[in-house]
From TrEMBL:
<feature type="domain" description="Ketopantoate reductase C-terminal">
    <location>
        <begin position="261"/>
        <end position="390"/>
    </location>
</feature>
<dbReference type="InterPro" id="IPR013752">
    <property type="entry name" value="KPA_reductase"/>
</dbReference>
<dbReference type="Pfam" id="PF02558">
    <property type="entry name" value="ApbA"/>
</dbReference>
<keyword id="KW-0560">Oxidoreductase</keyword>
<protein>
    <recommendedName>
        <fullName>2-dehydropantoate 2-reductase</fullName>
        <ecNumber>1.1.1.169</ecNumber>
    </recommendedName>
</protein>
<dbReference type="GO" id="GO:0050661">
    <property type="term" value="F:NADP binding"/>
</dbReference>
<dbReference type="InterPro" id="IPR013328">
    <property type="entry name" value="6PGD_dom2"/>
</dbReference>
<dbReference type="InterPro" id="IPR013332">
    <property type="entry name" value="KPR_N"/>
</dbReference>
<feature type="domain" description="Ketopantoate reductase N-terminal">
    <location>
        <begin position="20"/>
        <end position="217"/>
    </location>
</feature>
<dbReference type="InterPro" id="IPR036291">
    <property type="entry name" value="NAD(P)-bd_dom_sf"/>
</dbReference>
<dbReference type="GO" id="GO:0005739">
    <property type="term" value="C:mitochondrion"/>
</dbReference>
<dbReference type="Pfam" id="PF08546">
    <property type="entry name" value="ApbA_C"/>
</dbReference>
<keyword id="KW-0521">NADP</keyword>
<dbReference type="InterPro" id="IPR050838">
    <property type="entry name" value="Ketopantoate_reductase"/>
</dbReference>
<dbReference type="GO" id="GO:0008677">
    <property type="term" value="F:2-dehydropantoate 2-reductase activity"/>
</dbReference>
<dbReference type="InterPro" id="IPR008927">
    <property type="entry name" value="6-PGluconate_DH-like_C_sf"/>
</dbReference>
<dbReference type="InterPro" id="IPR003710">
    <property type="entry name" value="ApbA"/>
</dbReference>
Length: 414
């Protein structure tokens, strides 16, 4: 809490509560919440669960987040909860108002009493407390819906940190959720390279130590060429940045907006080739290698991607852009990454197999949109994007048409 006091002292603004809200509890959200809770003096944390089913999972996991490293579970508790039910957020604090912890709703053989879930929700208060710091770790394609559910709790003093794959969500949020520039929150972006794999809800395994690169965005969200002046960031932005960079498991560093943008674009270029190709060829990342035809496809896609990135107005005047984003360097990086993650099923292929919408519109779609603004036609990236959407629709329809068979009577006869 020392950070909150320091930052409040530096400004004449109202004192910050220091509370951090987290929306999206997949791998990244769970890892960040757990890391914050592992601090010597953890900030107050509220996990935002977007439906009562997720709250039931939370109770079944005994209100704990766990990170598994080298086979050992590290368990953290003490999180306050908000649950979204019928468009209203309900507050379920970790401690009851009388200071007691909640009773266990899971019996000795691990069974959840569902009536307790509903009772908890019935007894809880509506929560429309303003949010100072919000960490958003939902997928790019869910960001607008997720932010709409909390937009009434965000103010121009709030800071929203987006931690996700893909690009273009800030532009979409400005258009669809915060159209009035005077009522927008401050934005921060981040890029996580830790290896994380889901084991079950609220339990994630940390498979490789990476870094977290963070940067606030200038007002409005998009950078302008040569605009790298020392901004006086808002108190909630400074607080969130300082808290995260002082949270050891995240290995977080603060960068300038232009430096972060370049890391994001490198990651985007990798995702624009590996992810859609693994979907279309239904293969592991490593299977894209040592294949002349696929190498040609990668190279052609990267030529378009490189042309768009090198022409981006926000990067003009940045030294070394043309060599950092040359098709050759990007291809070497893609080959290296596909090799390093050879046995992985890409996140996009996992989404397609689960029948979920993919991030393609925030990957190749982003390149196509930025290309259009600059008069560069990206026919190949457009084609790849349409193929991925088409393939994922075919699979969804196929699954919807599958006839569910009730085989329980056969099991009974055995
Ligand atoms: O980031 C990835 C993803 O799957 O989204 C890669 C690097 C392609 C690893 O699978």
């Amino acid at each position: 809490m020392q950070d909150v006091e320091e930052i409040s002292r530096e400004t004449d603004k109202r004192r910050l509560s220091g509370r951090i809200h987290i929306l999206g509890l997949g791998n990244v959200g769970t890892f960040v919440a757990h890391s914050l809770a592992a601090r010597k003096s953890p900030p107050p944390i509220t996990l935002l669960l977007h439906n009562p089913g997720l709250y039931a999972d939370w109770l079944a996991r005994k209100r704990c987040l766990s990170i598994n490293t080298n086979g050992l579970d590290d368990i953290k508790t003490g999180f306050d909860i908000n649950v979204l039910n019928d468009r209203t957020w309900y507050s379920l604090p970790y401690w009851k108002p009388n200071g007691e912890a909640h009773d266990d709703v899971v019996d000795a053989d691990g069974k959840l009493h569902i009536e307790d879930v509903h009772e908890d929700l019935r007894q809880s208060q509506e929560d429309d407390e303003k949010i100072e710091c919000l960490i958003v770790a939902v997928k790019a394609q869910q960001t607008v819906t997720a932010l709409k559910s909390v937009s009434h709790r965000l103010t121009p003093e709030s800071t929203v940190l987006l931690l996700q794959n893909g690009m273009g969500t800030v532009e979409e949020l400005n258009e669809k959720v915060f159209p009035d520039p005077h009522r927008r929150p401050h934005y921060m972006m981040g890029l996580i390279s830790h290896g994380l794999a889901r084991q079950e809800p609220f339990r994630v395994s940390h498979t490789g130590v990476g870094t977290t690169i963070l940067s606030p965005l200038p007002a409005g969200g998009r950078l302008k060429a040569g605009e790298e002046k020392d901004e006086d960031w808002a108190p909630s932005t400074k607080y969130l940045l300082r808290t995260l960079t002082l949270t050891p498991p995240l290995v977080a560093v603060a960068e300038t907006p232009t430096a972060l943008l370049q890391y994001q674009l490198e990651k985007l270029a990798m995702n624009c080739v590996i992810n859609p190709l693994t979907v279309l060829l239904d293969c592991e990342n490593g299977e894209l290698l040592y294949n002349y035809n696929i190498t040609r496809v990668m190279r052609l896609l990267l030529i378009e991607i490189s042309t768009v990135i090198c022409a981006l107005p926000e990067l003009q005047g940045v030294p070394g852009i043309n060599s950092r984003f040359s098709p050759e360097r990007l291809r070497n990086m893609a080959v290296h990454l596909a090799n390093k993650t050879a046995k992985n099923t890409s996140s996009m292929l996992q989404d397609v197999r689960r029948g979920q919408k993919t991030e393609i519109e925030y990957m190749n779609g982003y390149i196509v949109r930025r290309g259009e603004e600059l008069g560069i036609r990206c026919a190949l990236n457009y084609l790849i994007m349409q193929m991925v959407i088409g393939k994922s629709d075919i699979l969804t329809q196929r699954n919807a048409g599958a006839i569910p068979l009730d085989l329980s009577h056969l099991e009974e006869e055995d």
